[in-house]
Structure prediction request, 1173 residues.
Amino acid sequence: MTQGFRTQTGGRIDRSQTLAFRFDGRSYAGHPGDTLASALLANGVRLVGRSFKLHRPRGIFSAGAEEPNALAELRGGARREPNTRMTTAELYDGLEAASQNRWPSLRWDLLSLNGLIAPLLSAGFYYKTFMWPAAFWEKVYEPLIRRSAGLGRAAREPDPDRYDAVQAHCDVLVVGSGAAGLAAARVAGAAGARVTLCEQDFALGGGLLSAPAHGAWREATLAALAAMPDVTILPRTTVFGYYDHNVVGAVERVADHLAQPPPHTPRQRYWTIRARSIVLATGAHERLIAFPDNDRPGIMLAGAAETYASRFGVRAGSRALLFANNDAAYASLFALQDAGIAVAGVVDPRTESAGAEAARARGITVWADSQVTGASGGTALVGARVARRGAGGGDTLVVADLLCVSGGHSPAVQLASQGRTPLEWSEALAAHVPGPATLDQHSAGAANGVLGFAEAAADGARAGAAAARAAAADIPLPGAGDAAYGLLPFWEADVPGKAFVDLQDDVTANDIRLAHREGYKHIEHAKRYTTHTMGTDQGKSGGLVGAAVLAAARGERVQDVGLPTFRPFTSPVTWGAIAGPHIGQQFAPTRLTALYDWHVRRGAEFMDAGQWLRPAFYPIPADADAWASVLREARAVRKTVGICDVSTLGKIDVQGADSAAFLDRLYTNTFSTLPVGRARYGLMLREDGIVFDDGTTSRLATDHFFVTTTTANAGPVMAHMEFHLQTCWPELDVQLASVSDQWAGMSIAGPKARATIGKIVQDLDLSDAAFPFMAVGDGSVRGCPVRVLRISFSGEQAYEIMTPAGYAETVWTAVLEAGEEYAITPYGLEALGLLRIEKGHVAGSELNGQTTAADLGLGRMVKKRGDFVGRALSQRPGLTDPDRPVLVGIRPATRHDRLRAGAHLVTPGSTESLGWITSVTRAVELEGWIGLAMLRGGAARQGSRMQAAFPMLDETVEVEITSPHFVDAENLRVRG
Amino acid sequence: MSVVDPVSPLGNTLVPGRHGAAGDGAVRIAERRCDLVQVFARKGRAGDVAAAMLARFGSDLPGPGHTFDAPAFSALWVQPDGWLLVAPRSPEGALAKSIKAACGDTASVVEQTHGRSVIALSGGRAAWVLGKLSSLDLHGREFGPGRAAVSPVAGLSCVVHHRDAAPSYDLIVFATFARWFVTSLTHAAEETGYIVE
Prediction:
């Protein structure tokens, strides 16, 4: 448990406390302030993972979100989280982590033999290798690929933690809390703006955290921000996407730094932030350089090595060599030297530089005009070969266990680019910088191509003022440092070998050239062909290097080749955060009728009907199975009386002087002739002439109608009405209100229906003469107001009683008590369906978006005169073709043969489908199964026999074609 | 007419007591039993409706995004020429009848007492809790007492009424969704803790 690579002093870790953690089963110690990566390095752990394709040994390459190699599975069991970057994982006491993508162990990984067949695993090998024989795909290739590919393993158990989502608004959103971000937030906050500052790290300060000289400025600025009431600071919050209208997505890791979240605390929170203006102070990513074996553990970005030394008090190696093309990297090397790391020298492709001079002054050897031509060592770096550029002579082996690489710095323009800002090329940086923004967006600091703390802070102050639309406030800025940069674009050592441009995806410079040779010359095509920049790091370190290799192959400039499009997610986000609280019962809203509690007490089996939970049936102990319940309930309706909760029907209150005219235009039939106190069945078409919905409409007053719709179309019919009222006929005096929730509804159906409710309905004469079929009237039941409609879906004598929802159970119970002498039976959705099929009433399976009024036998409901929605297109030849399938009834010739919805109707010996069965049920009025079907020439085929074929189960049933009205075709019962 | 107390659509979804996280940030969640009436001006009659409402009830009919507290009810703008009146419970249908009597054929009046549920959310962190379910900007510069918005909350159509500076919000949703809505709301409030009285 020694931390042999920890410095005695320095850094932002708390040496007074020790945190114990385990990696691949071994125990280690670290300190508060560590990441998993810094703690592993402090303990001398260099090998932390295996690469994706070739299973090459890999070490920690960076100190941040750009990490390509050091991915771990964190925690265990249901909380196991794969592909977590060790460089951003905050250390806590008891942390369990495991390396990925290796078997049986990290050090002895069998699939590292892939390295021997690497020539076969070149770019596009997926497309080439697994092409033949075709039969091998499912049985051999895919299982093989699935076993060897992929990174970590997700947990298989349900996630025990909760994930939250929140929406926020601000005047100025600042992304990044480095020198530029802090200055921008302070200026904007001082100007009175509502500011939100997001920082992905757990500590605020960005690069300032590795710059002790600027510690005081950082502290003072944070204190000033903390004192501003309208400034919100969100550490551990990664902005991953920038969307239209300055909407950004971010994930806050609320409790990832704890073994498990405290009670009632989410693990992560998904933020949707709408900002009037956005300051992007996202910093820059240091670039790798492609040279043979540039992926060996011990090879690290120079800035990362500096961060480990300065921020974490960790020596990332014992003897460091720097390979860099810019002066900023020299500062990193000097920080390592100051932290006690021996320096082997500097390899610099430039002939002369300020950095080299400064290094020599420190007694450091500099190989100028030189390059690294290879790395030695397997699971740990031993040394690097150094040679003069272009010279044919031999190279020198320099012993080092840490090779710091810096190919320059690319501003982190991902979010700016997602936010529609065009990118421009900076010759000084050899990188893309944001051009003029189109949205209210301001890049600042290193993200804007401005290097140096003082310069970045000044740029941030400028951006903060612009974002707040204020004059630049006079805030203190950090002191100026050495701004020398002097970059020479240098992408790749010009020697043969396996030189990676994408460490995570095992893409080499040669792969890019191969893609070019094979025709994938566009940067987007080369990306897909090679998988370059497609990993969790999204090519932050090597994306531009690969583009430069492609540019060289094309004989063009890098800036003319460009980069692949930046899209969300800029950094990986867990699925838990994306799902948020919308899981299980909270995935989508559930809708309950006012009688739900009664149904539960009665022991109903429920079924989903859209968002509704509806009783399917009410089993009793005597029922042998579900069918027994359903048939018992349906028989009660046919023989005595039943009661069904129909509260889910859509109900629309239509008022206004032009209400009748409005309904005449919407329905195929006429409502202006409907007397007050009467209801009429109505049919509504879509614009294209297909049947949309049906229902009954009651006239309560000359200027007041009560419209019902099917349960499924309650919302769509309301929208259809609003649309026509607002856009087509705004001159009409009509007001619409959804009253679906105001009124609970119950259907009382059966020969004893009137006898039942006649006992309890007051203030309304229900006698047949006073209240005939299709009558409507208001009354009361036990003091509760009710609206009674004499309508029937079952074909029996039936009434619907509507009552304000708060009285539903009182009225329902009153009906049950009144019907007790007739053994009144509650019936569910299944019996309701059975009864309507027997009666030949159409429902969702027939109103399926393909049928016309005539198809359904409802042609007589289409008025001869007057226009209505859907009239013109319902007269198209295709919709009036006499050979269209029409509604018929179906019975099996052998009565107890089972019918299946979806079966095709064919003549014996033919495979030509002439129609299909839409709805089936076992019947109570007749023996055995019955069904409804849509059949070509259906009217002429009534009385004939056909075959109902259901090829999926290899079934064929001989059926009789009948009238769709199995019960009371003359419609006498409803009037009885 | 009614001798029976109407049943709440919430059943026992809201359990009295203190729930969720401890600490002093708890919000309060309660059902407010209210009379609810929708009033629409008939075509071209908005001026007449406003005059009748002012004369009979002393109520202004507020413009978009605003509310007006009259002695008998609060009037919330919910759509062009359309308002939702929220009042303490009175005999069944009485408020709607009195509005119709005052406005006659200048207005269409629809009883919604049973069709909507009023859920009250209040306390210092109420806006934080509501921010988990709604994309409204509830900051004092954009919203505040006397303001209302019709906007999805927990994915459901909702009238959000900022009633007072506590702050207290009325969340008015379709009654058949009320249980699911309240469950979403209490889940969102577990982080701050919540009190049901």
Remarks:
- The radius of gyration of chain B is 17 Å.
- Chain B touches chain A through 55 residues (CB under 8 Å).
